[in-house]
Fold this sequence. Notes:
Elements: H1 2-32, H2 36-62, H3 66-89, H4 96-116
Helix pairs in contact: 1-2, 1-3, 2-3, 2-4, 3-4
Amino acid sequence: MMKAKAVLKALLCSYTLTGILLLILAFLLFKMDLSERIVSVGIVAIYIMSCFLGGLVLGKKMKKQKYVWGLLLGMGYFFLLIGVSCLVEKGFPMDIGHVAATLAMCLGGGTLGGMIS
């Protein structure tokens, strides 16, 4: 039970950071008229940073097999992200290549955060 609670807290940290960074990105888009490419890069960076933070938080709590916990955090982040996207879009919103790249970014960010913790 303690492990599930730690994972949920780390996911909450990740999604809180995601929300804050997306608001900043939206503000910058509004004020600076950013290109689609810059916004896409910003979104990728947000996914990676958020999963990294979650992996870092979870790794510090778990003490052992930190990279595995970071990997699980990245996986949880990804599945929650895809689930919400499917609900909002009323179907699968991305092509398989984009899904695979997003999964790799989430897993990599979480794993790296866990390893460094």
